[in-house]
Every structure is written in structure tokens, then in C-alpha cells.
Amino acid sequence: SAIVSTNPRPEDFLSVIALPLPHRPLFPGFYMPIYVKDQKLLQALIENRKRSAPYAGAFLVKDEEGTDPSIVASPDSSDNKTIDSLKGKELLKRLHEVGTLAQITSIQGDQVVLLGHRRLRITEMVEEDPLTVKVDHLKENTYNKDDDVIKATSFEVISTLREVLKTSSLWKDHVQTYIQHVGDFNYPRLADFGAAISGANKLLCQEVLEELDVDKRLKLTLELVKKDMEISKLQQAIAKAIEEKISGDQRRYLLNEQLKAIKKV
């Protein structure tokens, strides 16, 4: 008789522990290390891994104006709390509804390494501590892979990534690896890739995460990588101008020193 695997699949998880991400959303296919200070939450994640259920939901924290996203402003400014100290509904209302099902790949001390799998939307709270939520698993809207606009936008994203690669060493490893396998990419994954490695602020990245229309998602990503290309070129121009100024100053200094030496002879 056939052996039936008892290991649950990612899509089987309809309720998950909610992990707050203060600084950036997690995209499917990407790793992210986070630090979990709440011991009860950390223990729950460890127990889940032992039970072959190594998944949680990773959700970006909403901004409070003028505050660090990892700090929660209270009416009494001397009594600010960290996001880790919020529980239940108080934490839930600070999270974006759309996040990512994340595999817990390792836990070392309070460092938890996540691997993004698929998009989720919170539907309701199940438990308060640690915050556990019911979720819907989200899929991209149906799209035509042969659509000329989608093709053109994706090629422009790839072309821009190549341009940034020429000017930014920070992107080099990411982009080279991806472009080597460009034959087997799919359009939604390309959009996620560009947004995930971009220097865009977290709310713009969250927009890409929430967008299920593939054409719109690609266009959002194209805006982000184009902006990164402009910044990269500007950095190059500034660096070149400074180098030219320094080399000019050095030449003047050397000439002055030579003149002093000649006068002494």
C-alpha cells in the first residue's frame, strides 16, 4: 500500500501564530532573521517545530507617526512599550492584515530565521497570548503569461536590475543569482524579487506584497527598482565629484611642496 505523508503542507495551516515585523515585510522565497524577546512566544515556536508544524504568520507592524515601529507610543511618553510587549487585540490592531506564511528554519537563542512561503490575510483572532490568528491563503489573480504589457514590464524590471548591478555592489550577488535562472522565473516571483532587494521603504514594499494583480505588482516593483537605479547613479556622481576634488587638492599640495623644495635649493 502507498505510504501517506503525515507532514502538513503549508496550505494546511489555517491558523498561525502572528509574528510582528517592525522594519520590512517578508516576501515569499526570501529568508529573514528576527529576534523574539517574548519567552512565551519563543517557546510556542519551538514547540511547533517539534510537532512538525514549523510555520508562523509574519506581518508588518503599522507605523505610528513619529515613532520607531518597534516602540509603541503611549499617552504617557515615559511609559513607552516595545511591540513585543503587546498582546491580543492590542497587537492585532498594529499589524497589517496581509502578511506571509513563514517557515521557521532555525531557532538559536532568541534568533528565529524565517523563510517566506505564500501570502496570507488575517481574518480573526483565535488566541491572545501568543497572538494566534485565522488566515486566508492568498493567490495571485489569473493572468495571461503572453500578455504584451506584462512581458514588456517584466523585461524592463530585469533590464533595470542589470543596470543597478553595474553601479551597486550591494545588489551584485542577489541579481547575478537571479538573472542566471531568468529562464525559469515567473512574473509574480520576479515582482517579489525586485521589491524584496530594493532599498524602498517598508510601506512601498507592503504595497507590492498586498497586490494580487500581477500586472500592477510588476509596475509597482518597476517604480521601486527605477528609483534605486537613480539613487545608485547619483551616489556614483557624488563619489566621482569628491574623488576629483581630492585628487585636485592632492595635486596642488604636491606642487606647493615641490615649489618649497625648489626655493630652498
UniProtKB/TrEMBL annotation:
GO biological process: chaperone-mediated protein complex assembly; mitochondrion organization; protein quality control for misfolded or incompletely synthesized proteins
Lon N-terminal domain sequence ranges: 16-229
InterPro entries xrefs: Lon_Prtase, Lon_prtase_N, Lon_prtase_N_sf, PUA-like_sf
GO molecular function: ATP binding; ATP-dependent peptidase activity; serine-type endopeptidase activity; single-stranded DNA binding
GO terms under cellular component: mitochondrial matrix
Source superkingdom: Eukaryota
Protein name: Lon N-terminal domain-containing protein
Native species: Aegilops tauschii subsp. strangulata (Goatgrass)
